[in-house]
Amino acid sequence: MCGIVGYTGHRRAVNVVMDGLRRLEYRGYDSAGVALLDAGELVVEKRAGKLANLTEVLSGHSGLAGSTGIGHTRWATHGAPTDRNAHPHLGADGTLAVIHNGIIENFAVLRRELETGGVTFISETDTECVAHLLGQAYRAVSAERSDRLAEAMRRVCQRLDGAFTLLVVHSDQPDLVVGARRNSPLVAGRGDGENFLASDVSAFIEYTREAVELGQDQVIEVTPQAIVITDFFGAPAVGTDYHVDWDSAAAEKGGYDFFMLKEIAEQPQAVADTLRGRLTDTGEVVLDDMHMSPRQLRDIDKVFVIGCGTAYNAGLIAKYAIEHWTRIPVEVELASEFRYRDPVLGPNTLTIVISQSGETMDTIMALRHASEQKAPVLAICNTIGSTIPRESDAVLYTHAGPEVAVASTKAFLTQVTAVYLVGLYLAQARGVLFDDEIGDIVAALRKAPEAIAKVLTLMDPVRRLAESLRDADQVLFLGRHVGYPVALEGALKLKELAYMHAEGFAAGELKHGPISLIEEGTVVVVTVPSPRGRSVLHDKIVSNIQEVRARGARTVVIAEEGDDAVVPYADELIRVPHVATLLAPLVTTVPLQVLACGIAAARGNDVDQPRNLAKSVTVE
Ligand code: M6R
User: Which end of the chain is less congested by CB atoms within 10 angstroms, N or C?
Assistant: First the structure.
């Protein structure tokens, strides 16, 4: 949602904070702002629009030598993306500045109370309430107290409902940043004579890889020499220290035009990293991270898979794989719908929540609902120490490395890889597949990174096609079996990046309505299952291609090398290497990612930061 960064130490805070914001801009880019403590003065600058606007303003400042500051990049919730609504927000006497990620749910009540007490608001944000409350609380805490600002923060947090990460600086406290978190992320970075706070470690990875994960409902005081953590009532608390195992290069574009292109190219390695240490030479799957006893594994009678957007699409693939391999019924749910329809689940319902960021509020609420029903929750997540893995019973990290582009690519392939591992592990633990059957799939999975690398070498025709589709009105995507979620994912990527009408359909469903969308020249992208697998699927989709072509569609066919049956019906043919039927999404999704990226770039859109979006959606 929003990105926040705080610094205190021996460097020029403006540089550290702006560097951090540059790395966090993927979280929101409606506005950006900083508050810097400079020679006892609080200097605040903020601008609507991208970070570049703020950079320009700051370049006009001379000085700014102070070494403590906070910065914010916003995805608007309360109030339009204007200069006035941009963070930081000031308390009434202008001595403190606050930034916020999340939503204060009781802000209307608080605002009314403050206005009745004579406070005048200058923004439409929920955050400004916090700034005024902090100003009042600070004045109420004894000036003798060394933790005066932290105590003010604790008192205010006790009054807030909702999700928030807050950072505050005060002009009386030159070397101090105070933070707080509930339901939104906050990590600290430990440096040498300097310390950091941020929404995620990428903001400070250039300076330190030693991080501290904060727990729920904690307040943190950060000075150049120390980090002190308490709960909201002042009781001492500890964070969880961890070492970040990737470096700052991983969070840079590395010569690519867009993060998205870099992340597409990283997919062979990312999938290899998801598999690493989880497959044995004798063809078994080792998932100690599932933390389930053989008895619990045997007793599972139903699986729910829950996620949003791309993660949901990965969940749909889980259904095909897990049901096929284990014969356990699997239901896939959009996280935002799950808890509102009173789903039936209990101690034998394995609930798998999938999330790249580990911060998606809809998914967090769904996992809490499952936990309340006593269902064991397994998270498939990329972000170490984020809320979703922390609140789950077990976690399977995907180890994809940082994903910066708003459009998920390597997160998707690694999530799909992780669900294959879970499905095989369940099949192995329950003895429903023979060892050699599992061994065959394990062998195929081992080769997946190689197959993905091969697809990447076959993308020139896709790039050319993208150029030619820049002015298309709509693109439809068709697939069958696991090709159906791939079609949904292809359409999601195109909508998100190219701002173009795109829909994914199960190919067999087309004649039940959507076929009327097709007119002369409509582009229809079809992923074709291997003719070597369940060839009935292959034959049926070849018929579907003919049906749309007969109605004037321009067909783009993604088919495996050597599949000649599709040639007569393909206006454009994109080849992918053969992989087993259930594993096909690992290769067939890649051309759709490249296509969406190419069309968006050809249309002049911002590929990494598409309009109206943010990388992680931390509000319901
Ligand atoms: O961080 P998460 O995986 O929980 O995010 C879920 C969705 O918001 C995310 O996949 C979104 O759909 C992507 N921008 C799609 O590319």
Answer: C
